[in-house]
Amino acid sequence: MKGLVTAVTVVGTMGAVALAGGAALGGCGGSPTTAAQQARTWASNAGFGSSTSQLDGDLARLSSLATDSAAVRRTDCDVLVTDALNANEQLPTPDGSLTGLLSQAYGAAASAGRDCFAGGARLALTGPQAQRARTALVEAQARYDSLTSTLGASS
Q1: Domain span at residue 116?
Q2: How far is Cα 22 from Cα 72, in angstroms, rounded to an integer?
Q3: pLDDT in tens, 75-111
Q4: How many domains does the chain have?
Q5: Is 28:80 a contact under the CB 8 Å cutoff?
Q6: What parts of the chain have a pLDDT lower than 70?
Q7: Would you tell me the crossing angle of helices 35-46 and 48-62 to the nearest 10 degrees?
Q8: Which of 100, 101, 137, 152 to pair with 91, CA 20 to 30 A apart?
Q9: Rounded to whole angstroms, how far apart are CA atoms 81 and 87?
């Protein structure tokens, strides 16, 4: 019986040590804890600023391609699709609303690029998908800004 008590004591002590060690490590993870910190970390890791700027530039360039050759316009349409799909790979975000807005923006941008590419001689990008993409990008940026804003935060 004495051997059984010793074994239970050792296992019980090891379990307590493991629990204490786990609790200590849990506090040292350095993981972002607030919604703002999580959003900032995601944005930094995902290249949020550069991908939204890239898509906005793609959309602007394609809406003003009236004088470029069809080959240049087709290339730019394809670039928009590729950039939208690449940006979409960075989803989800830590915020459901931001994820939804970005998903809408990226989907609309990819659709606009495919429509543009399929448009033959009419490759200018002025359709409703392009406008949806622009609107959703603006709304997503506003959502990100509201998540990460320090205005009104207590010090």
Answers
A1: 42-146
A2: 58
A3: 888 999 999 999 999 999 999 999 999 999 999 999 9
A4: 1
A5: no
A6: 1-32, 65-67, 120-126, 152-155
A7: 60
A8: 152
A9: 10
